[in-house]
Design a protein that fits this description.
Length: 438
């Protein structure tokens, strides 16, 4: 009984300390938070003017609705800060609870893994629904790990009212359910597939009804808009060329005329208000920045995960993994790969956190059992890699930015080589399978 109380208290206490540390360190920056792009739409929605918000922002209805309830008591800005702070605490408390109850390693390891600059950046976006989505999704993963599937579907419904990334969660969950059905003949999987589709449909219907009078900037259908955004994201990340359309003329971010402009073809005019499109500019940073995000936001986590996936094979891990494990693994990998295509901001990469915070620690536990000296070196590389990212937040010459990427890649390489050097020791370690994997 006493041990059970301690297990519950320690994560809550540490989550409180970490939340307090993050909030206090950001106090002076609070006035800047509301100036981030798109924040104005969520403020409009929270203040009861959703008809003035553009899509897709207007479709993220749950977060502004909750803000509006707090706003009555404390005002708009204080409501965003309150909900954002509570979201941060909830996220940290749930992750630390899973760490402390299942990894069974010193809590200091848990703090090193999670207390990285990415968490500060997430909190800085509290006027957007990203942090709120992260907190609600952590509840979803918690219920999924605990095999409370009906509760997880209820939370998934709330996620559909929060951000479009919920569609990826639903798709991956259905894929994991199909794996359960085909490989283990789990008859319950079929009912959960239909349940997920029902929740998906209900969420889509509610959002569509609530935003029936809202439009996106291009007056384009939702599917076409998502495809347009995805294609432009891919081109920007791979080539460095940013696109331009004449509907962007009202935005303050476009300060000069585009390089090249073409008249849009008739079929584009028939599905949108776009009359001209072209290339706005080229920037090497549009290529380098996504690369830096990939190799630094989660420290050397990519090298650690890739090594263990390569050693065990993705197919082998999925074959032995549980429904929760497969969903978390596939979702994290998918979001990490899709992030450069969704947008240029770091916040899209942070959606991959479940695979780094919920699965990677179990691989690290095997390293700890195999070679504690190497484990310490790998953790030092992880911490150094994640915190070096802070340097990129300041104005930096392109050459220095490139050097920073090379240093980050070197840390990833050192981690990979370190794991390879103890491969024989790792093979002798009994596979430490967490309860939610087996």
């Amino acid at each position: 009984m006493k041990e059970s109380i301690i297990k519950q208290f320690v994560p809550l206490f540490l989550a409180s300390l970490l939340t307090m540390g993050i909030v206090l360190s950001q106090l002076s920056k609070f006035p800047e938070f509301k100036n981030v792009p798109d924040a104005e739409y969520y403020i409009l929605m929270a203040e009861g003017r959703p008809e003035k918000a553009l899509l897709p922002y207007a479709s993220r209805v749950l977060h502004p609705w909750i803000i509006s309830k707090f706003r009555i008591l404390v005002g708009t800005d204080a409501a965003f800060i309150t909900v954002g702070t509570l979201s941060l605490f909830l996220f940290l408390a749930i992750i630390l609870n899973i760490f402390y109850s299942q990894i069974r390693r010193p809590i200091l390891l848990c703090i090193v893994l999670i207390f990285i600059p990415s968490i500060f950046l997430l909190y800085n976006n509290l006027y957007r629904p990203n942090l709120f989505f992260t907190a609600i999704s952590s509840i979803y993963w918690y219920f999924l790990i605990r095999k409370k599937h009906l509760m997880s579907l209820l939370i998934l419904f709330l996620l559909f009212l929060t951000r479009k990334e919920s569609m990826v969660i639903a798709f991956i969950f259905i894929l994991a359910l199909l794996i359960e059905l085909l490989m283990r003949a789990n008859k319950k999987a079929l009912s959960y597939i239909f349940g997920t589709l029902a929740v998906w449909g209900l969420g889509y219907a509610i959002v569509s009804y609530l935003t029936r009078h809202n439009v996106n900037m291009h007056h384009m259908g939702t599917l076409f808009f998502l495809a347009f955004k995805f294609i432009c994201g891919v081109v920007l990340s791979l080539t460095g060329f940013s696109h331009w359309v004449d509907t962007y003329q009202v935005l303050p971010y476009y300060t000069h005329t585009p390089w090249i402009v073409w008249d849009s073809p008739q079929w584009i005019r028939s599905i949108s208000h776009i009359r001209q499109f072209g290339i706005y500019e080229w920037s090497i940073m549009s290529i380098l920045r996504p690369l830096l995000f990939l190799v630094s936001l989660f420290g050397t986590g990519p090298a650690i995960l890739l090594y263990f996936i390569k050693q065990n094979s993705l197919k082998g891990l999925i074959k032995t993994g549980s429904l929760a494990f497969n969903t978390i693994l596939l979702y994290g990998i998918a979001m990490f790969i899709l992030a450069p295509c969704i947008g240029p901001s770091f916040r899209f990469y942070l959606n991959a956190w479940p695979v780094f915070f919920l699965i990677m620690p179990f691989f690290l536990r095997q390293v700890y059992q195999a070679d504690r000296g190497m484990f310490m070196r790998i953790m030092l590389c992880y911490a150094a890699s994640s915190w070096l990212f802070v340097l990129s937040l300041n104005e930096m010459h392109t050459i220095l930015f490139f050097v920073l990427i090379l240093v980050e890649i070197s840390l990833q390489r050192y981690t990979w080589n370190g794991l390879s050097s103890i491969s024989q020791k790792l093979k002798k370690v009994n596979n430490i399978i967490p309860r939610f994997i087996s």
